[in-house]
């Protein structure tokens, strides 16, 4: 496996993620490397690899770390792009909405400091968590209405899909 402290291309990241398919120890080691705040490049590359795992691998091997992933996603000090953690979380099934994650998504869904990728993932996560609760669906709809009309295509698509999901 390639070292994570060098510059990696997307193809290399995809290869590493593919090699980790059904490799519990390898995925766990990658998760440990992602938590290393002392080396931001290694943490970023590990998060990038984990975000490209198959949905099946994420569900099997990363679901036990759901709470830690939520802590990382909602942390003010994140040494790499938040969208990577949010992308991992969008692929993890949850029966109960995580109040802290939902609050974070609703609060930061319109934050101009966040990237378009983070906004899209927050919209998707919020819609999934709000769907079973009509009162939360109304709150999410209000948040989505306050989003700028000139949003990027990815954010606009996430918004459309979220509105469809919560209005069913």
Task: Supply the key terms.
0% strand; mainly alpha; 10 helices; 168 residues; globular
The number of helical runs is 10
Helical content, roughly? 55-70%
* CA radius of gyration: 16 Å
Kindly estimate the percentage of residues that lie in beta strands according to DSSP: under 5%
Distance between the termini: 45 Å
Average pLDDT rating: 92
Low-pLDDT residue spans: none
Q: Give the class from helix and strand content and strand pairing.
A: mainly alpha
Mind describing the biggest β-sheet? none
Task: Compute the number of strand runs.
Answer: 0
Coarse shape: globular
Succession of helices and strands: HHHHHHHHHH
What can be said about this structure in brief?
The protein has 168 residues and is mainly α. It has helices at 10-19, 24-34, 40-51, 55-62, 66-74, 82-90, 99-108, 116-130, 134-145, 153-167.
Q: What can you see in these coordinates?
A:
This protein has 168 residues and is mainly alpha-helical. The chain is built from ten helices and no strands. It has helices at 10-19, 24-34, 40-51, 55-62, 66-74, 82-90, 99-108, 116-130, 134-145, 153-167. The mean pLDDT is 92.
């Amino acid at each position: 496996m390639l070292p994570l402290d060098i510059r990696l291309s997307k193809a290399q990241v995809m290869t590493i993620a593919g090699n980790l398919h059904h490799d519990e120890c390898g995925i766990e080691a990658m998760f440990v490397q992602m938590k290393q705040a002392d080396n931001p490049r290694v943490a970023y590359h590990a998060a990038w690899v984990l975000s490209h795992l198959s949905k099946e691998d994420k569900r099997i091997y990363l679901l036990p770390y759901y709470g830690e992933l939520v802590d990382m996603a909602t942390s003010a000090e994140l040494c790499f792009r938040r969208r990577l953690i949010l992308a991992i979380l969008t692929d993890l099934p949850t029966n109960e909405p995580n109040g802290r994650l939902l609050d974070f998504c609703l609060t930061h869904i319109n934050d101009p400091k966040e990237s378009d990728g983070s906004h899209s993932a927050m919209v998707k996560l919020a819609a999934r968590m709000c769907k079973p609760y009509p009162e939360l669906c109304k709150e999410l709809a209000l948040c989505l209405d306050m989003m700028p009309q000139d949003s990027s295509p990815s954010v606009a698509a996430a918004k459309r899909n979220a509105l469809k999901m919560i209005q069913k």
